[in-house]
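Why should sequence recovery work at all? Because a backbone constrains its sequence more than one might expect. Tight turns favour small or flexible residues, buried strands favour hydrophobic ones, and helices have their own preferences. The token representation captures these environments compactly. In the example below, the structure is given first.
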């Protein structure tokens, strides 16, 4: 059976929304051949069981059940890669996206020969009806920042509801980061040609069942993704986050040093050593939480990871100091010697801790 449209729906704890979404889609999409692919990250509420039950009753429904992975964007990409129809629609499972727009999006992308049609909450009569006030503000701000960094003028690049041509997706797929929540923005920023794009307005509904997964980590991921795209992706995504955490470590270090040496008159070497340990510890905790949140170490593994992180950083510090000293002795200005030393230490810490502290587990 060849489908004209593959609808990709990422799910995490959406058990009660699966059947209503399926029914709603059946109701509005009567003129096109579609399939509905759910990509579930092994939701603890058993969403995959509901999806598989449905898939056993209707051939158009499929379940991609992923283990040891989390992420809205990567789930969407995986769903797209598993399908082959010429058109793809990405939407949320929580019924916030109005499925009645799909036929219109479908007609528009074909008639106007577009790459992407976005369902926009800001354009014309569209609205963010269902979102709390502070979410609207964050959303608008993020929109502005990202629009500035691209030369595309659309009103809602944060939308999680859009239709895309497979031929376009296949042009940009090598460059998409697949991280975080902002799949559309990721796709747009990955294109080096002008994107043929249009928007259709809709009113976003409020969520009835389950809860939103957008949290601080999602926002962090988004900011890092923007920086990463701006520097042209020469620098690995995680390294940017690692450096940001490292800068906070410098601050923690100086604060600890000041409070022990300057404010409490403790011996300098001892203060400096303790401050180093404090900063390494906060760096570890923050990296575990932000940079490597998808490989987060918990329980016993948290403590073992901390010990190996100390070890890695200690070698990094030796490397840092010896390189800086060497460069300084070769008449490099002190600040350049310092920066090169610190950079070498950071690259070492990052590379080795990615390999040994937060190593990737087996993915299925
Ligand atoms: N597979 C998978 N893995 N799915 C996920 C994950 C994950 O880690 N996190 C969230 N999802 C699914 C949810 O189950 C839901 O179907 C959809 O992704 C959106 O998640 P929500 O948690 O409901 O997000 P939101 O409503 O706060 O944000 C939505 O609206 C934003 C605009 O305000 C998303 O569509 C965003 O992409 C969009 O920017
Ligand atoms: Mn939602």
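From this structural description, the recovered sequence reads:
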């Amino acid at each position: 059976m060849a489908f004209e449209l593959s609808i990709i729906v990422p799910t995490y704890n959406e058990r009660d929304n699966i059947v209503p979404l399926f029914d709603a889609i059946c109701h509005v999409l009567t003129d096109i051949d579609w399939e509905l692919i759910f990509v579930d990250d092994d939701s603890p509420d058993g969403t995959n069981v509901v999806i598989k039950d449905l898939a056993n009753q209707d051939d158009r429904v499929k379940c991609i059940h992923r283990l040891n992975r989390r992420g809205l964007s990567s789930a969407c990409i995986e769903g797209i890669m598993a399908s082959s129809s010429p058109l793809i629609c990405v939407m949320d499972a929580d019924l916030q996206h109005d499925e009645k727009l799909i036929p219109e999006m479908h007609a528009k992308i074909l008639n106007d020969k577009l790459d992407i049609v976005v369902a926009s909450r800001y354009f014309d009569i569209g609205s963010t009806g269902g979102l709390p006030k502070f979410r609207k503000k964050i959303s608008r701000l993020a929109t502005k920042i990202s629009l500035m960094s691209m030369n595309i003028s659309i009103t809602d690049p944060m939308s999680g509801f859009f239709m895309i041509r497979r031929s376009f997706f296949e042009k940009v797929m090598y460059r998409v980061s697949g991280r975080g929540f902002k799949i559309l923005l990721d796709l747009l920023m990955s294109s080096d040609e002008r994107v043929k794009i249009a928007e259709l307005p809709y009113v976003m509904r409020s969520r009835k069942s389950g809860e939103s997964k957008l949290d601080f980590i999602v926002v962090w991921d988004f900011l890092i993704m923007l920086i990463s795209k701006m520097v042209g992706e020469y620098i690995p995504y995680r390294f940017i986050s690692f450096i940001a955490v490292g800068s906070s470590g410098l601050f923690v270090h100086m604060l600890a040093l000041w409070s022990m040496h300057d404010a409490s008159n403790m011996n300098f070497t001892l203060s400096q050593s303790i401050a180093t340990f404090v900063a390494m510890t906060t760096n570890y905790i923050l990296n575990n939480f932000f940079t490597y949140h998808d490989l987060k170490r918990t329980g016993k593994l948290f403590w073992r990871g901390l010990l190996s992180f100390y070890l890695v950083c200690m070698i990094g510090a030796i490397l840092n100091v010896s390189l800086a000293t060497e460069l300084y002795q070769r008449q490099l200005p002190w600040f350049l010697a310092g920066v090169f030393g610190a950079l070498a230490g950071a690259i070492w810490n990052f590379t080795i801790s990615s390999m040994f502290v937060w190593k990737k587990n087996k993915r299925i």
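A few observations help interpret the result. Residues 92, 94, 96, 207, 212 surround manganese (II) ion (ligand 2) (CB under 6 Å).
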